[in-house]
Amino acid sequence: MASHGPVGVFDSGVGGLSVLREIRARLPGESLIYLADSGHVPYGEKSQAFIRERCQVIARFLLERGAKALVVACNTATAAGIVELREHYPDLPLVGMEPAVKPAARATRSGVVGVLATTGTLQSAKFAALLDRFASDVRVVTQPCPGLVECIEAGALDAAHTRRLLEGFVAPLLEAGCDTLILGCTHYPFIKPLLREMLPDDISLIDTGEAVARRLEALLDDKGPRLPATGAVEFWSSGDPRRLEEVLPALWGEAAAVSFFSG
Ligand code: DGL
């Protein structure tokens, strides 16, 4: 494994770009390879076995391209596949994502926390274990959000239909008395402005991108000194690369060429 190799980051689609931004901000010297599995998005309603297989295929590809560490920038893929990835690559620095139940349980004043996430994440054994571990003193109200990832993939971050869908997901959480909402899917930070518009000011939103970047930094620090230069960033998609190229300026902050991943 090349110690100066890139960090491989993947998601079912564009959601992991919200994590990639945090990694870039914290570790600008690292070269990054981002893979959007857009040919198979959304993961949220797919079987755990299917997602586990995608994790293996994508990890193999990123490692073949020299990745020295992997970030599973997807809650749904982490819930389904990270245990197997750790088994396959026991020496590889590997960071996954999970809904921020622990910080939310600490932050809530009303004692009611809402979780917006995919069906796959909310139904996973990993999520159940997370609740057992950190949410015994609070009430947790979960809300699957089918259809929302597709809106974000299409770049419809503040379209009328995205707003209508989101209002329907948020209403039961507000009715239940949640004062803290966990964004349990890496796509959702992109609709934070829309959420802020529809939520009362005293509702907190919590996501995990920054914590994941910090965790990656700690794992890389164990391996050696930080790189002073600015790293390169490479983008791949298993869907139509032009679709990702179209949304990169809005979601990543600059234009870039995207290569096709046929795996
Ligand atoms: N971005 C992903 C997550 O964090 C999954 C979205 C999807 O493909 O359904 O859960």
From TrEMBL:
Keyword DNA-binding assigned: no
Enzyme Commission code(s) on record: 5.1.1.3
Domain of life (superkingdom): Bacteria
Swiss-Prot/TrEMBL keywords: Cell shape, Cell wall biogenesis/degradation, Isomerase, Peptidoglycan synthesis
Chemical reaction(s) catalysed: L-glutamate = D-glutamate
Residues given in the record as substrate binding sites: 11-12, 43-44, 75-76, 186-187
Gene Ontology terms for molecular function: glutamate racemase activity
InterPro entries: Asp/Glu/hydantoin_racemase, Asp/Glu_race, Asp/Glu_racemase_AS_1, Asp/Glu_racemase_AS_2, Glu_race
Active site (UniProt): 74 (proton donor/acceptor), 185 (proton donor/acceptor)
Pathway named in the protein's UniProt entry: Cell wall biogenesis; peptidoglycan biosynthesis
UniProt key word Isomerase: yes
Broad enzyme group: isomerase
One example of a Gene Ontology biological process annotation: peptidoglycan biosynthetic process
Pfam family for this entry, one: Asp_Glu_race
Chain's role: Provides the (R)-glutamate required for cell wall biosynthesis.
Similarity remark: Belongs to the aspartate/glutamate racemases family.
HAMAP family: Glu_racemase
Protein name, entry field: Glutamate racemase
Native source species: Stutzerimonas nosocomialis
